[in-house]
Amino acid sequence: MCGIVGYVGGKTALPILVEGLKRLEYRGYDSAGVAFVDPGGIRVTKSKGRISVLEHQINCSEGATTGIAHTRWATHGAPNDVNAHPHVDAAGRFALVHNGIIENYAALRTYLSNQGVTFATETDTEVLVQLIAHIYDGDIERTVKRALREVRGTYGIAVIAADEPDTVVAARNGSPLLVGIGDGEYIIASDASAILSHTTHVIYLGDNEVVRVSPDSIRTTTLDDIPVTKDIEEIEWSLDQIELGGHEHFMMKEIFEQPDALRDCMRGRIVPEEGSVHLGGITDVARELTRAKRIIMTACGTAWHAALVGEYLFEDLARIPTEVEYASEFRYRNPIIEDGTVVLAISQSGETADTLAALNEAKERGALALGAVNVVGSSIARSTDAGVFLHVGPEIGVASTKAFSGQVAVLAMLACYVGRRRHMSQGGASEFLTALSRIPEQITTILEQDGACKAVAAANISRENWLYLGRGYQYPVALEGALKLKEISYIHAEGLPAAEMKHGPIALITDQMPVVFLATRGTQYDKIISNIEEVRTRGGRVIAIATEGDQQIERLAEWVINVPDTIESLQPLLTVIPLQLIAYHAALLRGCNVDKPRNLAKSVTVE
Ligand code: F6R
Questions:
Q1: Cα within 13 Å of Cα(71), Cβ side
Q2: Can you tell me which atom of ligand 1 is nearest the CA of 604?
Q3: Does pTM surpass 0.85?
Q4: Which residues of the chain have pLDDT under 50?
Q5: DSSP string, 7-18
C-alpha cells in the first residue's frame, strides 16, 4: 500500500528519504518519487517501477535538508511517472504526497478550473496541492488546514512549500502517520519501519490532527487549530527485526521465526501449572468479556482464517456463541448488536481499512470493541476499548505467516482466559496451557522437515489446481494453506471442509489434482481417512499432514509430512507450518517474487 516519508533537520534529506522508501517497499508499490526544497523552488523526481530506478535518477548528495517522498500503489489511475507522487501545483511552489482518497475531488477540481487553475494529471491528489497553492496565505500550516476543511475523504499527507524551506506539514484522517523524533530532526512516515534506523521515539497522529515540523520545533493541532499534547512513545521493534538476517526472503525468515515469535507472544502471559492466563490489555474489561452473550470476530484474509480457529476455541473453551464475519461484509450490513455483544477485530497491521471500519461500526452500535493486533500504535489498536497485542515482531513478507500463528495463540490464550472465568476447571486450563507452551519447540521440529516440504512442492509444481481439505479445527488451516499457495505461487488452490468435497468439488479430482489433507489424529480422524480413500479411488494425488507415528497414513498418502502430537484445538498452530513451507517452495520453483507477489500489498488501507 502507498507509503509516505518526510524529513526535516540538519542532514541531507535525500538519502534518508530513499532509505525510508526502501524500508516501505514490502508494503507493495508500483511507482515512487521524491520532492525537496532547493533555492530555486521545489524539485521533484518520480518514476514508475522500483525504487532502485528512482535512485538512479537522483543525486543523493544534493544538499536539501527538507523533503518528502512516496511509494504509490495504484488504485485510481495507471501506475506511471505522471500519476506517481509527489504532486506539485502549476507554479511548482508546493509539493504533496498523499495516501488515501479525496472523495469530493471532482467538485474541487471544477471549482479550481473555473478559477483558471490548470491541471497536469487526473489525480485527486493534484487537486489538493493545487487547492493549497490557490489559497496560500503565507503560512503553510494554516493553509493546509483551510484546504483540508474543504476535503471529504481519507488522507495521510505531507506537504512542503518553497517559501517555507525548513518546514514539513503533515495531516491525517483515516490513513496512518507518525513522526519520528530525532536530535534536531523529524521524520514523518506512514509506517514505523521507515524511521527505525534513525529513532525509536515517535508520536502517532490521530484523525483530524495536523503536525508542523521544523528542525527545532514540532507542533500538533487539530484541524480547527486546537493544540494537542502528544505523548512520545517508544517503538519496541529493532532494526534487525526488519532486516533479512541472512535469509533470502522475509517470508522464509518469518516462517522460521515462529518458535521465537510465539514465545514472545506468550511470555509472561500464561502460567500452565496454575492454569492461569494474564492479559494486561483486557483487565479493565474482563468482567464485561466474561459475561458476553455473543462474540463477533471480524477480520480479512489470513486474519479471518485465524478468527475461524478462534470461533472453535471460544465455543469449546469459553462456551460463548461466536461468529466470524468478513470485515468488508460486516461493515455494510445492518448488524445486530445487542447488549452483551463483544466485537473482536483481528489484524496484523492494525491498518486494514475494512477491519477498522467494521470495528468502528460495532462501536457505534454499542459493542465492546476489542482488538488482537500486532502493530502497536496502529489505527485499529488505537480505536479499540481494550485488546491483546500479538507481540510477534514486525511482519514484512506480504504473505502472512507468523502473524497467523500469533493470532491463533492470542485467541487460544483469550479463550482460556474467559473459559477459566466461566466454567473451565483449573486442571483443564492447566492441560491446555501446558500444550500451548510446548508449541514453539514442536514447531522447531516441523521446520526441520523443510526439505520434505520442498520435495512435495517440486513433485507437484506443474499442477495448476490444488485442493486443501480439513475438518473441525483443521478446516481454517485448509483455507489458509490454499491462500498461501495461491497468493505467492499463483497456482489456483481451494480450501474446503473435507466433507463438502462430496457436494461438488469431487468432480474435479483426477490424477492431475494434488489434494492436501490435514489428517492429524483427533475426533474426526476416521472421517478424514474416508475422504482420503475417496480421493485415492479417483486417482487424486494425496499429500497428508499427519501426526507423527501414524502408519496408516503412510500407506494411503503419496507424500506425508509429520507434525508432533498435541491437543486437537492447538493443532492448527502445527499443521499450518508445512503448508507455509510448501507454498514458499512452490513460489520459488515457479520463479515468483515471494516477498512481493504481483498485485498484492502488505496492508490494505483502502477498500
Ligand atoms: C495473506 C495476507 C492477507 C492479510 C489481510 C489482513 O497472506 O497477508 O490476507 O491477512 O490483508 O491483514 P491484517 O492482518 O493486516 O489486517
A1: 30
A2: 11
A3: yes
A4: none
A5: EESSS-HHHHHH
pLDDT attached to residue 84: 87
* Measured CA angle at 410 (ends 405, 412), to 5 deg: 95
The whole-number pLDDT of residue 361 equals 94
CATH for 243-447, options being 1.10.580.10, 3.40.50.970, 3.40.50.300, 3.40.50.10490: 3.40.50.10490
Q: Which residue reads 519501519 in cell numbers?
A: 193
ω into residue 215 within 30 of 0, thus cis? no
Annotation: CATH topology of 449-594? Rossmann fold (3.40.50)
Specify the ligand 1 atom closest to the Cα of 302.
10
Other beta carbons within 10 angstroms of residue 166's beta carbon come to 15
Centre of ligand 1 from the C-alpha of residue 174, in Å: 18
Contact 554, 521 (CB under 8 A): no
Closest CA to 592 of 600, 247, 561: 600
Cα three-residue angle 68-74-78, rounded to 5 degrees = 110
Q: Which CATH class is domain 3-235?
A: alpha beta
φ, ψ (nearest 5 deg) of residue 604 = -95, 90
Give CA–CA dist 54/56, Å, rounded: 5
Only one residue has cell 497468493, namely 487
User: Residue 63, Cβ neighbours under 10 Å: how many?
Assistant: 11
State phi, psi for 204 to the nearest 5 degrees: -100, 125
Cα–Cα dist 345/332, whole Å: 16
- Between CA 31 and CA 47 the distance in angstroms is 6
| Protein residue with its CA nearest to atom 16 in ligand 1 | 347
Strands 209-214 and 164-173: what pairing? antiparallel
pLDDT, residue 242, reads 84
Active-site amino acid positions: 2, 602
For residue 509, report the distance from its CA to the centre of ligand 1, in Å. 30
Express each pLDDT in 428-437 by its tens digit.
999 999 999 9
Per-residue pLDDT, 27: 79
Q: Is 347 in the pocket of ligand 1 (CB under 6 A)?
A: yes
User: 603: Cβ below 6 Å to ligand 1?
Assistant: yes
How far apart are alpha carbons 10 and 57 in whole angstroms? Answer: 23
Q: What is the dihedral of CA 213, 219, 222, 223, to 10 degrees?
A: -40
- Asked if the domains at 243-447 and 449-594 fall in one CATH topology, the answer is yes
Domain residue ranges in the chain? 3-235, 243-447, 449-594
Contact indicator for 8, 166 with CB cutoff of 8 Å: yes
Q: What element of type H or E holds 188?
A: strand 186-189
- Quote the ligand 1 centre to 346 CA distance (angstroms): 10
H or E stretch including 36?
A: strand 31-38
Residue 566: name the closest of 361, 457, 409 by CA: 409
CB of 301 shorter than 6 A to ligand 1:
yes
**CB of residue 348 inside a 6 A radius of ligand 1:** yes
The DSSP annotation for 299-315 comes to: E-HHHHHHHHHHHHHII
